[in-house]
Specification:
The protein is mainly α. The chain has one domain (13-252). Helices cover 69% and strands 0% of the residues. The protein is built from ten helices and no strands. The chain has helices at 13-37, 49-75, 80-104, 114-128, 135-154, 161-165, 187-207, 209-213, 221-228, 230-252. Helix 2 (49-75) crosses helix 7 (187-207) and helix 5 (135-154) packs antiparallel against helix 7. The model is unreliable at 1-7 (pLDDT under 50).
Length: 254
């Protein structure tokens, strides 16, 4: 499948709005997490399905949108230079997340979270964009691999488990047990979600481009604007909320 001819580098409001909706949902989720962390509303975010399923849905939306974004960039003929500039921003923010989480959670700091995963998966998505319809089965394989690895590393290949469970390789997601960390978004299975977003975007752009290209109405415009500034918002929202809750705790003498 060959790349389409370059077109005007326009924003796709509907994709931005979907990403913006994910940002709003993420903010509500993180605010509840912060309330629990500071003891205002204790919840079990590691085991309660009400929270774990929400996290899965939010991360899935982010990565699916990232896949859509790569489909649009490929369709527009975006070069490696522009891709690289954005990639450096994401990778740099991932390092900042690791540093900030280490200050708050030294025993469970984020060594491979959402931004770390996005940085790696974007490169893979960029390289595999020409696969076209083969992205669909590739995504299914990516989603299945962790389940196969979990079985293998707990049964016939149990002696290999320490290698894959360690930080040197657990970013792949082929582990016998999940690491103890505040956020964990390994390459597998999540690359499968991004691949499906990439495949969906390519399919829509070839057959139903107006579904992505049409502007959103006034009611959804704020979400589209938020979606355009997703990285900046992602980096700022938690420090602001945590700082606010710490200030409230100080005023209440907690």
């Amino acid at each position: 499948m060959k790349a389409l001819a370059p077109v005007h580098m326009a924003r796709f409001d509907r994709v931005d709005a979907l990403r913006g909706f994910a940002m709003v949902w993420m903010t509500a989720f993180h605010f509840c997490f912060d309330l629990s962390h500071f003891g205002y509303w204790l919840q079990d975010f590691r085991h309660d399905a009400f929270w774990t399923l929400q996290r899965t849905a939010i991360v899935s939306m982010f990565l699916f949108c990232a896949g859509l974004g790569q489909a649009i960039a490929w369709h527009q003929g975006q070069g490696w230079a522009r891709f690289g500039k954005r990639w450096v921003q994401i990778a740099g923010c991932a390092l900042l997340v690791s540093a900030g989480s280490w200050l708050m959670f030294p025993r469970s700091y984020i060594h491979f979270g959402v931004l770390h995963g996005v940085a790696v998966m974007l490169v893979l998505a960029r390289l595999t964009a020409p696969w076209g319809r083969w992205l669909w089965p590739a995504g299914a394989v990516a989603l299945a691999l962790p389940h196969l690895a979990h079985w293998a590393l707990n049964e016939p290949l149990a002696t290999w488990a320490p290698w894959f469970n360690g930080k040197g390789l657990n970013w792949l997601g082929l582990v016998a047990r999940k690491p103890f960390t505040e956020d964990y978004v390994p390459v597998f299975p999540w690359l499968g979600v991004m691949w499906w977003g990439l495949a969906s975007g390519q399919w829509l752009l070839q057959r139903y481009a107006p579904l992505l290209q049409q502007p959103v109405g006034a009611a959804l415009r704020p979400l589209a604007v938020l979606g355009r500034w997703s990285l900046s918002y992602y980096m700022l929202h938690q420090p602001v909320m945590i700082g606010g809750l710490m200030a409230v705790g100080w005023m209440l003498g907690r």
